[in-house]
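Quick question about two entries, pasted in order.
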Amino acid sequence: MKRGRPLRFQPRLPGPLWNDVLGERPVGGRFRAIRRISTAILFTLLCIPIQAVLLRVPGNAKNRFPRFYHRSLCWMIGLKLRVIGQPCQQPRTLYISNHSSWLDILVLGATLDARFVSKAEVAEWPLIGWVSKLGRSVFVSRNRGRTGSEAQELRARLEAGDSIILFPEGTTSDGARVLPFRSSFFSVADAAERIQPLTVVYDRLGGLPLGRKDRPLFAWYGDMETGSHAWTLLRRTGARVTVVLDEAFAPDAAPDRKALAARLGRSITETAAVLRQNRDVVRV
């Protein structure tokens, strides 16, 4: 019997996308991003007046509602949240985290009942600035002349019973490393009741382990624009972030703030390296 010509299958995806499983989809990705961004904006506009009212009434609803808001946003943009460990339940906790993206705000806001420390420019941003103010964020400037007064405000927040989230790197990284922690961020550590280190790593894309070349997709650093970064990221599916919360300890466990910065930086760097290697975090 004469052998026929071999079958030739045509790829359903054009060009290089045939070999790029995690790549952008020409049409579906755009619709997905538009849907996610539109839904997030509409949801935010509905939540702003609700939180404004909650801030004026007694009770703990004004603290619980931001967690619901941030957790809902994570779901709307297709970001799956995995948390290992438990947040410290004591008031006046100083949470210390690495920082690589604007997504960290959504992730930590969904995980912790705490106030963020943001740069002063954020207060002037449309929509994001309003949300930050309603979430009672603490805004700090880069003016050395105001360092003392801003430290006093952070100290007052802690003494009043609030918990604070700090990013001691001072800026965002490229997601492939943890930058050195600046000891100046720990000048108010003695006002905290407990200090808890936590690590944030984006480790899944398309439902698969994230490789080194894909980490900049989540990272927001340098001169990146928030809008274009969000547009590129929200076209993708199957994203996941892992948050690891280590055991909290008393501030006097370290002799000074330099030793404290070194201890926390080493702990978070080691945990982040384990997560980036797609290994399980072993908790003692």
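Here is the second entry:
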Amino acid sequence: MTHRREFIKKSALASIALGMGFDTYSSPFPNLNLKVGACDWSIEHSSDPNGLAVAKEIGLDGLQVNLGNFDNQLHLRQKSIQQEYLQKSKALGIPISSLAIGELNSYPYKSDPQTEQWVSDSIEVAENMGLGVILLPFFNKNDLRDDSKGKSEVISKLKNIAPKAEKTGVILGIESYLSAAEHLEIIEAVGSNSVKIYYDFRNSADAGHPIYEEIPLLAKDYICEIHIKENGKLLGEGDLDWAKIGELLSKSDYIGSGWMQIEWSTPKGADILKAYQHNLAFVNKNLNPA
């Protein structure tokens, strides 16, 4: 595999093109045709099947769900909880779009042995529920920045679990503060098409990465799903250029899982329902124009 070399080569070509004044992304972009969901933890229903009803009230196409928390023993691993979700999803007409293991931020995959079983079990959950993407977050205690030992441990664990993900057709998406090149180093080291990047534009920008350069280099081949957010602000009230992001994704032939998930983007004290209806309308206007 040559992910990193390809990235460096593409980066150089992109820099040359920009330096010569070429604007690859200036023409009107076609509809991305991505379905719009939200993270259940962002609508105050983390690992709660009742979040599906809130998603329907907002008008979303679906809901990304958290596997559970330590106190409920990541309860979506239980067949009965899976069935409850699936039955409510069918009754409401609101699909479950993807899965996340939020507890990895508190119980780090890079160092806590029990998390290997969590990730393994989550693949079975995804298979049982017909889900194609599992978000593995690397924040807080699980942050990989300036942690070469942590990266090595994660690579080793992903190498071990990747064959199971490949067999079931599930993608494990790494979401972190790492740069594009650092993500690709991990992907190359693991050597599996079942390990990709779960890209969050706000997180990457906050970490100081050039997101408008990273998007066209990563979108088509390496990003499995995306988060849309402005922390503590409604979409459109932050400093990210969402129309440009949509244009870059479209021109890069981005498909991913076919979903984008709105996360947070709620000012302190704001009504969740009204905030997310605003955010949904913003996404449909600026990233998914009709």
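Reply: Residues 59 and 131 are 21 Å apart (CA to CA). Residues 12-27 have pLDDT under 50 and may be disordered. Hope that helps.
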